[in-house]
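U., I forgot to send this yesterday:
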Amino acid sequence: MKQVRNMTHQFDGLAFSPADILLPRNCEYTKWSVVACDQYTSQPEYWQRVEEYVRAAPSTLRLILPESCLDGPNVETDIVEVNNTMTRYLREDRFKLLPGCLIYVERRLDNLRVRRGLVGMVDLEQYDYEPGSPAQVRATEGTVLSRIPPRVAVRKNAPLELPHVMLLADDPERTVIEPLSDRKEEMELLYDFELMERGGHIAGWKLTEQQMSAVAGALRALADPASFNARYGTEDKPVLLFAVGDGNHSLATAKECYERQKKLVPPEQWEGLPARYALCELVNLHDSSLEFEPIHRVVFRTEPEALLEALLAAYPGAYRGEGEGHVLRYVWEGGTGAVTVPHPTAQLEVGTLQSFLDAYVKEHGGRIDYIHGADVTRELARRNGNVGFLLPAMGKEQLFPTVIHDGVLPRKTFSMGEAHDKRFYLEARKIR
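Result:
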């Protein structure tokens, strides 16, 4: 264990480091691993298929609560059941412990592209979701504070965490993760299996001490303040080492739970709190598999015609059809069309649309959902009482400069891939 501690010391001061990772044993990995809980919230049939496939097998399905259940009538009972199952799995010794390790991951997506990542833990002391924060790890989107308490309810008494958070590093020279792809023969293969429901294939290897040392060195180079400011043409800007690409609200929830625990113990004990850290996967923004997909909007239980008229009235000079400015394309039972907002004040179309929808729903009712995939958006939008908006993709090269200069993007601005490309739960870590 002394060697492990010496290795982790190489990461002192960095927001990302090796973790005590738990992997399942004596189970069918394909049934064990399920997609992130915030996917398919408007498609309960997806989760029903997963339920029927998993049945009584050990599975992360029993250790998470799909977000579609957060508003359900049995949510409190569901949370207790999740926590009890975690405790039971620990008691039954269903996990093997990998102390102080990093896992190199290759995920072959449904489109056959390979996404490379590194599983470790992020220091929540170095993360902040407030816009304009100087923290090493920052949110990429506005955090909806109302979404945190229901998630805190799930996490606050849980003995384990399962990550679907993805951190992004702006590493165009490919110094941190990519060198590992040619050195897999030096590592221990930990898992190698097919994921369910078009999730593709995933394999993971345990890094050697030498490889972890190389990762620490590469991260330190990225975190160098002089290099950082030169890279972005800034002066004395605090270093943004990682941007949260996926799981903003999950990481904000982990932060809230940690802050609560801090109030119960003296500061000298904070470093030793398991809740101070959160398991996550680090991915290079420049990974060739990463594509920024737009996240579309569907408004449920509304009057589409009235909503569109209100949209036209909300912005001076807005008109139906496509022209110069922000073009907001819509779909509803009555067909398709577009509204153009000339001379917009927001940087992105999603900013123009979201500020209107938030105000409209607050005044007139309805529910906004955030949909991955244009086909699903069209299908849902064409149902009676719904209207959908199809948004353009954002260039990923805009991400870090926007967060550095402007704070955060409007919430749910982009998604990295389709829903089935999202992170699947696999690894776990004790947080109590």
